User: What shape does this take?
Amino acid sequence: MNTVFESIRIFLVNLHPLWVYFAISIAGLFIYWRGCKETRKNISSVFDTFFISIISGLGMARISYLVINWSDYSRYAWYFLPYERYGDSVYWFRLLPWRFLRIWDGGLTIFVAMVAFLIILTFLVLLYKKWRWYQLYFPTFFAMTVMLGISFIYLGIVNEYVEWCIRGGLLIALPIIFWAVSKILLFTIKNGIKRRKTLVYIGILLSTLVSLYIAYGYLSDTLSNFELISVMGLLVWTAVMDIVSIIDVNRPNVEIEKVSGVRTVDIEVNQPVRIR
Assistant: This one.
């Protein structure tokens, strides 16, 4: 068993960080897409909102990492070309400002990326797409927790820190727990409106507890200012979105059918028309 674990650890240590970011993003996209599919959202819009949010989140994570570790970058010279040439050897992205783009070196603040992703995706869903929030709250939140959970497991295996792996496993299990609850309610509550509200209330409770759990885990450790702001942002986001979800799920569903005020008139071909 130890040999298998060590083989996995060696594989992950040698794995290029870009592949890790890609795998994490695909996992988050699947959870978000699967939740949106249940509410019949436009697939193109689902992909657009996710990719804009994840790219923006990674950008914020890179900026925060650069600020936190600025002393490691301040010693490099600035040069207007992205490469250096010494004889037959060419070196890419080694000097500033091009070195700022080397995210494949692993220079990201993961938790900042996740919270930024959460906030930006919420903005796009609520204010740009104007989708019902009680439908998108849980796909959005669980996409973030799954990506954060995979990050924990990856770092836990690489650094041989079992507690991180356990935290990651709990976060990854959340969508499965929520899905199981929804299936139980499907068979126990026949009234559709009551079932929907019950599921939303259970989801709100689950999301709130998980946010507190994540915040407690980070606050128990030494944090940078960016990470501390992200923890506070997660707690505020959860409290506000809980309230928005409760209001939204209790809002009546009203559909107004558009009826044309112009009466349809059928005219046969070659039939004379009298104009008055």
Remarks:
- Residues 192-219 form the longest helix (28 residues).
- Residues 2-69+107-249 form one domain.
- Residues 255-271 have pLDDT under 50 and may be disordered.
